[in-house]
Amino acid sequence: MSKKGRVLVAMSGGVDSSVAALLLHEQGYEVIGITMKTWDYASSGGNKKETGCCSLDSINDARHLAVKCGFPHYILDLRGEFGESIINNFASEYMAGRTPNPCVLCNTYIKWEALLKRADMLECEFIATGHYASVRPENGRYVVSRGKDHNKDQSYVLWGLTQDSLKRTMFPLGNYHKPEIRALAEERGYSELAKKSESYEICFIPDNDYRSFLKRREGEDKFIEGDFILADGTKIGKHKGYPFYTIGQRKGLDLAVGHPMFVTEVIPETNTVVLGTEEELQKQSMTVGRYNLVKYDKVAPNTEAHTKIRYKDIGAPATINEDNGKIKVLFHKKVKAITPGQSAVFYEGEDLLGGGFIELQAK
User: Fold this and answer.
1) Which CATH class is domain 224-276?
2) Which candidate among 116, 252, 258, 261 keeps its CA 20 to 30 Å from the CA of 296?
3) Could you say which of 53, 103, 124, 203 is catalytic?
4) Is 203 one of the annotated active-site residues of the chain?
5) Is the pTM of this model over 0.85?
6) Which CATH class is domain 6-130+172-194?
7) pLDDT for 195-248, tens place per residue?
C-alpha cells in the first residue's frame, strides 16, 4: 500500500471525478476507482438518448481512464437501493405537494454509505469524489467549506453528511476552478474528456420531464384537474393536477389575469393550487426539520447564518435557532419562494454550518 494510503474514488465518467482520480494518483495515493450505477435508463420510459453518469459510455470512460493509469476499477450496482430510497421519495414528495431535491438524499443515504461500505471491504482509508467543496479537521470536527469556484460550488448538496463520513472523505477539486479542471484533463492527454458537456437533469429523468415521469410511475388517474384559487379562496381557473406545480412557478399556468401570477401554495388534500402576486410569494420565516449540523454540534442561540433555500440561490442573511428538534429561521428581509421539501443550508462565511429540509413557511 502507498505511504499516503489507499483511496476509493467515485468515478462517474465525467471530467470532474476523472480528474479527481488523476490528481490523487499523481499525488501518490493508491487509487481504486468505482462507478455506481444507480438507475437503469431502459426502465425510465423517457425518450432521450441514454447519457450521464449511469450510461454505458460513461462507465466505459471511467474504466478506460483507470486501465490507462494502471489502477483497479469496479462497477457497483445500486439500482435497488436507489429505487427504494430516492425514486420512491421523489414521487411521494411531489404527491404530498412538496418539491424534493433527490441529490441531497442520494449523497446522504446512498452514495456515501455505499462508498464507505466498499472502502472497508477494499481496505481503503479514504473515499473521494469530484465535488467542488473542501473538508478540513477543526476543533475536533470535520468542516465542509465552499469550493473555490463559487459558480460550481456543491457544498449545498453535502449538508447531510455525518462526521464519521467526512472524517474519511477527500474533495480533490475544492481549490480549483472548472476551467482549470478541463485544462488538467487536456494536458494529460484526455481531450475528449476535457470537452465533455455537463448534465443538469435529474439522473433518473433523462428527458428532464418530471411530470411525464410521475404520470408513468403513479398512473394517469392520480393527476386530475383542480382549482387555481387566490389566497381568499376565489376560484380563478383550472390546473392539470397539483403535483405538477411548485412554489414560485410562473410559467406553464395557462392562465391570463392581466398581470404575473405565481404559485404560492400547493394543497394536496383539496387538489388546490394557490396563486398570488410576487409580493405574496415573499416570506420572512420558515421551519427546517430533519437537519444535520456540520461545523458545530449545536446551534448557538440567535446564530447569524447566510441561508440558501435552493441550489442556485445566492442566499440571504438570517437568524437561526434550534427549537424542539427543528431549526427556526428568521430572514432579515423577506425572500422569494420558500419551498417545502427543498433544502435550507446554512453558512458561516465559507463554512457549512449544516442544513435540513424546509417544512413550513410563515408570513
Assistant:
1) mainly beta
2) 116
3) 203
4) yes
5) yes
6) alpha beta
7) 988 776 788 887 889 999 999 999 999 999 999 999 999 999 999 999 999 999
